[in-house]
Amino acid sequence: MAYNTKYILRYCNRDRTPLRVEIEVKDYVGEAFIIVNEEDYLLDSEGSYVVMNIDGTYDPDRDQNPIDGTAYPFLLKFQNDVNEKRGVMRATYADMQFFENNVFNIDDLATSDETELRVKFYYNNELEWIGFVTPDFFNVAIEANPQVNLTASDRIGILKDVEYPIDDYYTDSRVTYMDILVKCLYETGLELNINAIIDFDCLQFTSVSGRDTHPLLDTYVSELRFITDEENEETMSCYDVIKSICDVFNCLFTQYKGEWWIVNKEQIEIGYGNLWTFDFEGNLQNVSTFDQKEITFNLIDTGGQRTIIPAGAKNTYLLSHGDDRLYPVNRTLKGTSLEIPGWARRAPVVSYVMTSNIPTEYNDSGTVVDYDVDSRAWFFNQACIYDIVSWDGLPSIAAIDDQGRYLVQSQPFLVPTLDRKRMSFDLTIKAVGKPNSSIMLMVGLEFTDSYYKYAGLRTESDEEGKPTGKYIFSFSKFGGDTGPYDNITSGPTNNLIVFGFEDKYKNTDLAVEQEFKISVDAAGGVNQGHLDLTTAKMFIRIYPNKTQGTSTTGYLTANMIKEIRLDFKSDNQTPTGTVFQTKLDAKYTKPTDRIEVPFGDYQTYGQNGYFYKYREDSLSIHYNADGQRLATWTTPVDTESNPVLVHSLRQLTRSYGQAHDELNIGFDIPRIDPFAKYAVKCFSDRYILVNPDDDYLQDKEGTYITSKIGKYLNSKKFVFVEGTIDYLRSHFTGKLAQVRTNDVQHQEFIYSYFEQGDIS
Q1: Strands 595-597 and 454-461, bridge-based pairing
Q2: Which of 43, 429, 690, 731 would disulfide-bridge 516, Cβ 3.0–4.6 Å?
Q3: pTM for the whole thing?
Q4: The domain containing residue 165 runs over which residues?
């Protein structure tokens, strides 16, 4: 896919700096109108001009069509998501006006493809901005000399409607922040370099040969944290994903000079740092020193406003831990008869199919004779094991003579605990089946101990052999099994759980949709020795259905499994988030808006507040390349080792720790630099009036004594917030905010969050 320039406007600003607008068309290779006579062109039945390719190749000298601009050919806008300096997402837009002609008109521009028309703007022959023309905003006045109005954008805004793409919902393989950014920015259609100024360093980063460590390259997180609905495979928007990454490191995001930029806000205010440049695929290209410009201005437009923004009395970051994870991955067994992601098939024979036909009725021999059709396919277990003992509902015993005769096994996962010593979970199965038949599962534990390697869940029995109604993990697979317990592939086992379908309708031919649930509490100790939960992994196996009969007289009954869910329970004091907060010592009342982030370091302690442990399998946790949790960070201004969100919170507190000026003004400048500092260059003088008779104060030599005005702006520095630059007139209108980087007296808090009212 290539873009070539079809329309071009060349002009200069008032300083004679060359400016250029190029409108490119996807796969454009040149075209010509078919002339019928000197002034008439060939039209189709709908009145559109008929054109033809000349030779199938693009020739810039021949195929670029000059166009004429109006008095406002190109205006570039930076629009902040929050109209203060704490804003994060700074989208860019361009408004353009050109005169219509036979070659350039809205009929020729009309398209339903949001990425067919691309605009490039050049300042002094350097790329200044790039974006796509928005098809919804073509308009032209009906008049003698019509003007075509176009709007183009960098498509950051459209990312609000684009879900984050996850390739594998069932494998928790962690990725870097850079991997995530590249995925999101790909959705804009712009393949631009990525520049980062984020000098956060973590003591737990894994060292990398050939380069220094970097928070975007060396911080690993789980993409599964972005899932909002696992069953329907829905995720957060790419816009919210980028914003969340920026919030973690107190950054803003924008386009500048035809490249993406993610920049720490405090480093803009202090004016130094390291600039890392990556290509659009996230590959490191260069590391240099951030060279911040200081731009001075004067002759401010009349009608400008100066607003004092009050200090932020309270500043809050909320690390949301996300929903508690449910196991195993792919709990509803989505997939095909050949592959179920997150589950391993037993070779060579597997007696199951995936079908959307949900049984509603069986015949006496166990064959499905009627069914409903669902919108998705479900796991249909066609394998059977017969129980020769008469039984009603449940089989006589949960046992199998060959434990290797399973159908599928889930991907093993580390057992979630709060203290690595004990676990509690609910096992829930949703299924459809024939009364007086059963589903049979193994809930297994795998350990690193070579002797005590495998244990399975089974019903607990008392001294008389009667079930107690409780469940335990047992290394012994059958009576008299003395070990070693390292075999999970062959031989008999009683370490199974069966779930029998009830005769709900007093008709054993009518299928029953049933939800089974058991609760399990387990820990290492006297009764369940060698359950070392610090390294234990759990897995689930699905075995053949169990039905009544013998190998020659049994019923070949097939049952359907819709979900197998393990919900590891936390105690009532398990929080859903962690609050990081500062409060100024002075008597201020206005708080800054709360910032909620999906990722942070695993927090193990509180400060000036109640803190409770949360689950170690939380998807919100930062890791390094080796899978170790990140914990302690430093920044250029703050060398004290702290969690990353403490540093970002302190930066926010310094920026809003004092009241600061906000200028909504206009002034002359040829181009805007969103990462520069701005200052007033000159001062106006005025005579000091002594009395109303026009007598002015003079010194002993008769020279008038003057005083300076503009005292509110003197010696103050400002950073860019948002605004519009008119390149033709070399004029900017927009908003600047005063720099504040001094430490202020404040208290810091870290405490657990349970519900909305918990944030003080």
Answers
A1: unpaired
A2: 429
A3: 0.86
A4: 159-321+655-747
